[in-house]
Structures are given as C-alpha cells and as structure tokens.
Amino acid sequence: MKRLRPALLWTAVLAGGVGLWAGQKLDTSSRQGPGSVSETEKEPDYGIGPVVAGIGDPLPAIVLPDLAGAPVDLQRFHGRPLLINVWASWCGPCVEEMPELARFATAQGDRGVQVLGLALDTAEGVREFLRRVPVNYPIVLETPGRADASVRLGNTQGLLPYTVLVDAQGRIVRRKLGPFVHGEIEGWATGD
C-alpha cells in the first residue's frame, strides 16, 4: 500500500503539470500585450503559411498606411536601394538604433539608399515615440500577426529589430536580425 501512494502522487503531479501547460497553450488570446493579436484579429488558417521572401527574391507586394493613414506601396521605392527597418516603440534595441538609422538616412541624401521604418505598432505609440526621438525618413504601420509584412520579408522568428536591404532592381539582398551598432549600417548597406 505504501508503494502505491508515491506513484499516485507522481501521477497527480504530472497530470496537474500537463493541465497547466495545456491551459497556457489554449489561453493565448487572453494575453493582450505589445505584439499580441486577439482571436478576432487573427487571419484564418487555411493550412497554408504566409509566403516568405528569401535572399534574391523580389520585394513582396506590400501596401501599408503611413501615420496619416495614407497607403504607401513599397514598390514606389523601386530604382534605388531601400533599407526597411522593422521596429516598435516598445522594443528597447529598436529605440537604441533609431538615431543611427536617422543619421544614415540623412547622409544618403536624394541619391543614396532610401530608409523606411516599418513599425509593428499602433499609430498612437509611434507618434508618441517620434515626439521624443524624431526621424527624417518615412514610417509605415503594420499590425503584428502570423503573416504581417515583417514575416513576409523573412522575419520568421518575429524578433525585433529586423532589417532588410532591397537593391535598386527590387530584390532582397540582405537581412539582419538585431540592432545596428554605431558605424555598422554604412558597410552593411553597401555589402562591405
């Protein structure tokens, strides 16, 4: 009889642990922090994942709103290299690299690499952030999700910041996960 009690106890502990784990997996819709998507906002899953662009692939057809709500077709940047930086106002490393990106964008002028910020954030969050840390390049907005523009640009891990370099012909030539350090962008954007 004594041997049965420890086995029964361990079975109960194991069952409780599995129950807690399953409850967490099934209750993801109740967590509504930055980057989460409610059940009503999720796209339907038809068993086909998002089309993810790789190195050498053309820039996917992406149209996103700017801060005023006007649609911005990313194809309009064709003809010059384009650095797309995916960020969010609540992302510490994103915030740290913004001054470096702004400096790089200013140095490029009208003939160099274009810079575009793609914020996985709300318009209010981005506006508040830009009041504190202004940048001189365009910003578009995207709602985080399973098939958002960041994922379609190759960010399958969903981590930020994430940067993509598109050449003048509209093909993805480089991708970087993580922030740029001082002086790194120039070499990265030119392939050095």
Explain what the structure shows.
GO terms for molecular function: disulfide oxidoreductase activity. Pfam families: Redoxin. Residues 53-192 form the Thioredoxin domain. By secondary structure, the chain is of the alpha/beta class. It has a domain at 63-190: Glutaredoxin (3-Layer(aba) Sandwich). Helix content is 32%, strand content 18%. The chain has five helices and seven strands; from the N terminus they run H-E-E-E-H-E-H-E-H-E-E-H. The strands form two sheets. A five-stranded mixed beta sheet has the order 5-4-3-6-7, with helices on one face. The longest helix has 23 residues, at 4-26. It is globular, with a radius of gyration of 21 Å.
List keywords for this structure.
7 strands; alpha/beta; cytochrome c-type biogenesis; two-stranded antiparallel ribbon; Glutaredoxin; Redoxin; Thioredoxin_domain; 192 residues; redox-active center; five-stranded mixed beta sheet
